[in-house]
């Protein structure tokens, strides 16, 4: 599990693409980070958990 600090311009899609090479796995990040009231509004400096999964481990 890795902690990631959100940067300006980040989206769940772009974070998923960076770590898993598949942007559509952003829903997986939502399931892991249930603290969000609206997962489409990421705030710069916010910390989220990015788990390693299968062959996508970076």
Features of this protein?
single chain, 58 residues, alpha+beta, Membrane-bound Lytic Murein Transglycosylase D, Chain A, two-stranded antiparallel ribbon, globular, LysM peptidoglycan-binding domain-containing protein, LysM, LysM_dom_sf
Describe this structure in words.
This protein is an alpha+beta fold and 58 residues long. The chain has a single domain, classed as LysM domain (Membrane-bound Lytic Murein Transglycosylase D, Chain A), CATH 3.10.350.10. Helix content is 28%, strand content 14%. The chain has helices at residues 12-20, 26-32; strands at residues 2-5, 47-50. Strands 1-2 form a two-stranded antiparallel ribbon. Helix 1 packs across helix 2 (26-32). The longest helix has 9 residues, at 12-20. The N and C termini lie close together (11 Å). The mean pLDDT is 88.
Blueprint of the fold:
Layout: E1 2-5, H1 12-20, H2 26-32, E2 47-50
Antiparallel strand pairs: 1-2
> What structural class do helix, strand and pairing data support?
alpha+beta
Would you give the CATH topology? Membrane-bound Lytic Murein Transglycosylase D, Chain A
Estimated radius of gyration: 10 Å
What's the order of the H and E elements? EHHE
Lateral strand order in the biggest sheet: 1-2
What gap, in angstroms, lies between the N and C termini? 11 Å
Low-confidence stretches: none
The multimeric state of the shown protein is single chain
Number of strands: 2
Our count of helices gives 2
* CATH architecture group name: Roll
Main CATH class: Alpha Beta
Largest β-sheet summary: 2 strands, antiparallel
